[in-house]
Amino acid sequence: DTGNLDVFHTSLIPFDRPVLLVLDEVGKQLGAHMAPVFARIMNDRIVFDRPLYPGSIVWGTSNGLGEGCGDVIKPHIASRMMRVNKATVTAVEFQAWGVNEGLDPALLSWTQMEPQIFGDYRDPSQNDNAFIFHPKHRPMGYACPRAVAKCNPLIVNRHMVSDNALRAGLAGMMGDVAARSLINHLNLGESLPRPADIFANPMGTPVPDNIAAQLHTVFNLVHAVQTQDNLCAAVQYVQRANRRELEAVLRNLASDAVALP
What we know:
By secondary structure, the protein is mainly alpha-helical.
Protein backbone atom coordinates (compact mmCIF):
# COMPACT_ATOMS: atom_id res chain seq x y z
CA ASP A 1 0.00 0.00 0.00
CA THR A 2 2.89 2.36 0.68
CA GLY A 3 4.89 1.41 -2.37
CA ASN A 4 7.81 0.30 -0.17
CA LEU A 5 9.37 -3.13 0.10
CA ASP A 6 9.38 -4.30 3.72
CA VAL A 7 11.31 -7.18 5.29
CA PHE A 8 8.87 -10.00 6.02
CA HIS A 9 10.04 -10.50 9.60
CA THR A 10 9.64 -6.84 10.54
CA SER A 11 6.18 -6.69 8.99
CA LEU A 12 4.98 -9.18 11.62
CA ILE A 13 6.05 -7.07 14.61
CA PRO A 14 4.27 -3.92 15.82
CA PHE A 15 6.77 -1.13 16.46
CA ASP A 16 4.30 1.41 17.83
CA ARG A 17 3.88 -0.20 21.27
CA PRO A 18 5.85 -2.40 23.70
CA VAL A 19 5.94 -6.08 22.77
CA LEU A 20 6.98 -9.34 24.39
CA LEU A 21 9.08 -11.05 21.73
CA VAL A 22 9.84 -14.73 22.22
CA LEU A 23 12.58 -16.29 20.08
CA ASP A 24 12.10 -20.05 20.12
CA GLU A 25 15.17 -22.29 19.65
CA VAL A 26 17.36 -19.20 19.81
CA GLY A 27 20.47 -21.22 20.65
CA LYS A 28 20.33 -22.86 17.24
CA GLN A 29 20.15 -19.50 15.50
CA LEU A 30 22.92 -17.87 17.51
CA GLY A 31 25.31 -20.58 16.36
CA ALA A 32 24.28 -20.37 12.69
CA HIS A 33 24.43 -17.88 9.84
CA MET A 34 21.58 -15.86 11.39
CA ALA A 35 23.62 -15.17 14.54
CA PRO A 36 24.24 -11.46 13.80
CA VAL A 37 20.53 -10.83 13.27
CA PHE A 38 19.36 -12.66 16.40
CA ALA A 39 22.18 -11.27 18.53
CA ARG A 40 21.15 -7.74 17.59
CA ILE A 41 17.55 -8.48 18.53
CA MET A 42 18.54 -10.00 21.87
CA ASN A 43 21.20 -7.48 22.84
CA ASP A 44 20.16 -4.22 21.19
CA ARG A 45 16.38 -4.70 20.75
CA ILE A 46 16.73 -3.94 17.03
CA VAL A 47 15.06 -6.08 14.35
CA PHE A 48 17.16 -5.65 11.22
CA ASP A 49 17.20 -1.83 11.10
CA ARG A 50 14.11 -1.09 13.21
CA PRO A 51 14.33 -0.60 17.00
CA LEU A 52 11.63 -2.13 19.16
CA TYR A 53 9.40 0.22 21.09
CA PRO A 54 10.86 1.29 24.48
CA GLY A 55 9.90 -1.13 27.25
CA SER A 56 9.79 -4.15 24.94
CA ILE A 57 11.02 -7.44 26.38
CA VAL A 58 12.93 -10.05 24.39
CA TRP A 59 13.57 -13.55 25.65
CA GLY A 60 14.40 -16.85 24.06
CA THR A 61 14.17 -20.58 24.68
CA SER A 62 16.80 -23.14 23.88
CA ASN A 63 18.02 -26.64 24.68
CA GLY A 64 20.87 -27.14 27.09
CA LEU A 65 24.34 -27.32 25.59
CA GLY A 66 24.77 -30.89 26.86
CA GLU A 67 21.66 -32.25 25.16
CA GLY A 68 23.24 -32.61 21.72
CA CYS A 69 20.61 -30.56 19.84
CA GLY A 70 23.06 -28.19 18.18
CA ASP A 71 22.50 -25.21 20.45
CA VAL A 72 25.53 -22.93 20.63
CA ILE A 73 25.72 -19.48 22.20
CA LYS A 74 29.10 -17.86 21.69
CA PRO A 75 30.73 -16.35 24.79
CA HIS A 76 30.78 -12.76 23.49
CA ILE A 77 27.01 -12.98 22.91
CA ALA A 78 26.25 -14.87 26.13
CA SER A 79 28.10 -12.24 28.17
CA ARG A 80 25.31 -9.77 27.35
CA MET A 81 22.43 -12.11 28.19
CA MET A 82 20.81 -13.27 31.39
CA ARG A 83 20.72 -17.07 31.12
CA VAL A 84 18.32 -18.97 33.40
CA ASN A 85 18.03 -22.75 33.71
CA LYS A 86 14.42 -23.93 33.69
CA ALA A 87 13.32 -26.38 36.37
CA THR A 88 11.66 -29.60 35.29
CA VAL A 89 7.93 -30.06 35.77
CA THR A 90 6.94 -31.89 38.95
CA ALA A 91 4.46 -34.75 39.14
CA VAL A 92 1.97 -32.60 41.07
CA GLU A 93 2.16 -29.80 38.47
CA PHE A 94 1.75 -32.22 35.59
CA GLN A 95 -1.20 -33.98 37.21
CA ALA A 96 -3.03 -30.72 37.92
CA TRP A 97 -2.51 -29.66 34.31
CA GLY A 98 -3.50 -33.10 33.05
CA VAL A 99 -6.78 -33.15 34.97
CA ASN A 100 -7.86 -29.84 33.46
CA GLU A 101 -6.72 -30.96 29.99
CA GLY A 102 -8.73 -34.17 30.22
CA LEU A 103 -5.82 -36.63 30.20
CA ASP A 104 -6.81 -40.22 30.87
CA PRO A 105 -6.85 -41.00 34.62
CA ALA A 106 -4.89 -44.21 34.06
CA LEU A 107 -2.05 -42.16 32.56
CA LEU A 108 -2.14 -39.64 35.40
CA SER A 109 -2.18 -42.26 38.13
CA TRP A 110 0.84 -43.90 36.49
CA THR A 111 2.78 -40.62 36.79
CA GLN A 112 2.12 -40.74 40.53
CA MET A 113 3.49 -44.29 40.73
CA GLU A 114 6.57 -43.52 38.59
CA PRO A 115 7.75 -40.06 39.73
CA GLN A 116 11.20 -40.74 38.24
CA ILE A 117 9.79 -39.88 34.80
CA PHE A 118 10.07 -36.25 35.94
CA GLY A 119 13.74 -36.63 36.86
CA ASP A 120 16.33 -34.12 35.63
CA TYR A 121 19.52 -35.49 34.09
CA ARG A 122 21.40 -32.50 35.53
CA ASP A 123 20.81 -33.99 38.99
CA PRO A 124 23.66 -36.46 39.75
CA SER A 125 21.19 -38.72 41.60
CA GLN A 126 19.45 -39.36 38.25
CA ASN A 127 22.49 -40.82 36.47
CA ASP A 128 20.97 -44.30 36.42
CA ASN A 129 17.37 -43.24 35.75
CA ALA A 130 16.41 -45.42 32.76
CA PHE A 131 13.14 -43.55 32.13
CA ILE A 132 14.51 -40.15 31.16
CA PHE A 133 16.91 -38.59 28.67
CA HIS A 134 20.54 -38.51 29.74
CA PRO A 135 23.49 -37.29 27.62
CA LYS A 136 25.59 -40.29 28.58
CA HIS A 137 23.30 -42.82 26.86
CA ARG A 138 21.09 -40.59 24.61
CA PRO A 139 18.02 -42.81 24.18
CA MET A 140 15.88 -42.25 21.10
CA GLY A 141 12.71 -42.66 23.17
CA TYR A 142 12.41 -41.49 26.75
CA ALA A 143 9.80 -40.29 29.23
CA CYS A 144 9.30 -36.57 29.73
CA PRO A 145 6.15 -34.49 30.35
CA ARG A 146 5.67 -33.80 26.64
CA ALA A 147 6.09 -37.45 25.62
CA VAL A 148 3.77 -38.64 28.39
CA ALA A 149 1.06 -36.20 27.30
CA LYS A 150 1.48 -37.31 23.67
CA CYS A 151 0.68 -40.87 24.78
CA ASN A 152 -2.81 -39.86 25.87
CA PRO A 153 -4.59 -40.69 22.55
CA LEU A 154 -3.04 -44.16 22.66
CA ILE A 155 -4.29 -44.69 26.20
CA VAL A 156 -7.78 -43.36 25.48
CA ASN A 157 -8.11 -45.68 22.45
CA ARG A 158 -6.22 -48.64 23.90
CA HIS A 159 -9.23 -50.94 23.63
CA MET A 160 -9.23 -50.50 19.84
CA VAL A 161 -5.73 -51.94 19.32
CA SER A 162 -3.89 -55.12 20.22
CA ASP A 163 -1.60 -55.33 23.23
CA ASN A 164 1.42 -55.55 20.92
CA ALA A 165 0.36 -52.46 18.98
CA LEU A 166 -0.21 -50.53 22.20
CA ARG A 167 3.19 -51.46 23.57
CA ALA A 168 4.91 -50.63 20.27
CA GLY A 169 3.21 -47.23 20.15
CA LEU A 170 4.06 -46.36 23.73
CA ALA A 171 7.65 -47.53 23.32
CA GLY A 172 7.96 -45.46 20.17
CA MET A 173 6.77 -42.41 22.04
CA MET A 174 8.65 -42.67 25.34
CA GLY A 175 10.94 -45.70 25.27
CA ASP A 176 10.57 -49.35 26.21
CA VAL A 177 11.19 -48.95 29.95
CA ALA A 178 8.35 -46.46 30.39
CA ALA A 179 6.09 -48.42 28.01
CA ARG A 180 6.43 -51.68 29.98
CA SER A 181 5.79 -49.87 33.25
CA LEU A 182 2.68 -48.12 31.92
CA ILE A 183 1.22 -51.29 30.41
CA ASN A 184 1.62 -53.11 33.73
CA HIS A 185 -0.22 -50.25 35.39
CA LEU A 186 -3.00 -50.37 32.78
CA ASN A 187 -3.49 -54.09 33.36
CA LEU A 188 -3.94 -53.39 37.05
CA GLY A 189 -6.75 -50.93 36.32
CA GLU A 190 -9.02 -53.47 34.64
CA SER A 191 -10.23 -54.82 38.01
CA LEU A 192 -10.79 -51.52 39.84
CA PRO A 193 -14.14 -50.35 41.22
CA ARG A 194 -16.11 -48.05 38.93
CA PRO A 195 -16.50 -44.37 39.91
CA ALA A 196 -20.29 -44.66 39.44
CA ASP A 197 -20.41 -47.39 42.10
CA ILE A 198 -18.30 -45.32 44.47
CA PHE A 199 -20.49 -42.23 44.02
CA ALA A 200 -23.60 -44.34 44.71
CA ASN A 201 -22.16 -46.18 47.72
CA PRO A 202 -18.90 -44.63 48.99
CA MET A 203 -18.99 -46.52 52.29
CA GLY A 204 -19.77 -49.94 50.83
CA THR A 205 -17.72 -50.14 47.63
CA PRO A 206 -14.55 -52.22 48.21
CA VAL A 207 -11.22 -50.40 48.48
CA PRO A 208 -8.28 -52.08 46.66
CA ASP A 209 -5.53 -53.45 48.87
CA ASN A 210 -2.36 -52.12 47.22
CA ILE A 211 -1.29 -48.51 46.81
CA ALA A 212 -0.97 -48.65 43.02
CA ALA A 213 -4.58 -49.75 42.61
CA GLN A 214 -5.72 -47.16 45.14
CA LEU A 215 -3.95 -44.35 43.28
CA HIS A 216 -5.43 -45.52 40.00
CA THR A 217 -8.89 -45.42 41.59
CA VAL A 218 -8.36 -41.90 42.95
CA PHE A 219 -7.44 -40.55 39.51
CA ASN A 220 -10.46 -42.32 38.04
CA LEU A 221 -12.60 -40.55 40.62
CA VAL A 222 -11.14 -37.11 39.92
CA HIS A 223 -11.73 -37.64 36.21
CA ALA A 224 -15.36 -38.64 36.82
CA VAL A 225 -16.39 -36.04 39.42
CA GLN A 226 -19.13 -33.79 38.02
CA THR A 227 -20.91 -32.41 41.11
CA GLN A 228 -20.27 -31.50 44.72
CA ASP A 229 -22.12 -34.68 45.74
CA ASN A 230 -19.69 -36.72 43.63
CA LEU A 231 -16.77 -34.98 45.32
CA CYS A 232 -18.15 -35.59 48.81
CA ALA A 233 -18.61 -39.28 48.00
CA ALA A 234 -15.06 -39.46 46.62
CA VAL A 235 -13.67 -37.93 49.82
CA GLN A 236 -15.61 -40.41 51.98
CA TYR A 237 -14.34 -43.32 49.92
CA VAL A 238 -10.69 -42.21 49.91
CA GLN A 239 -10.71 -41.63 53.67
CA ARG A 240 -11.57 -45.31 54.14
CA ALA A 241 -8.15 -46.27 52.72
CA ASN A 242 -6.54 -44.37 55.63
CA ARG A 243 -3.60 -43.21 53.53
CA ARG A 244 -2.56 -39.58 53.75
CA GLU A 245 -0.89 -39.63 50.34
CA LEU A 246 -4.19 -40.57 48.69
CA GLU A 247 -6.02 -37.79 50.48
CA ALA A 248 -3.28 -35.34 49.45
CA VAL A 249 -3.57 -36.36 45.79
CA LEU A 250 -7.35 -35.95 45.84
CA ARG A 251 -7.12 -32.60 47.63
CA ASN A 252 -4.47 -31.19 45.25
CA LEU A 253 -6.27 -32.29 42.10
CA ALA A 254 -9.72 -31.24 43.30
CA SER A 255 -8.44 -27.78 44.22
CA ASP A 256 -7.16 -27.27 40.66
CA ALA A 257 -10.30 -28.57 38.99
CA VAL A 258 -12.98 -26.36 37.50
CA ALA A 259 -15.65 -25.21 39.98
CA LEU A 260 -18.35 -27.85 40.44
CA PRO A 261 -22.12 -27.25 40.49
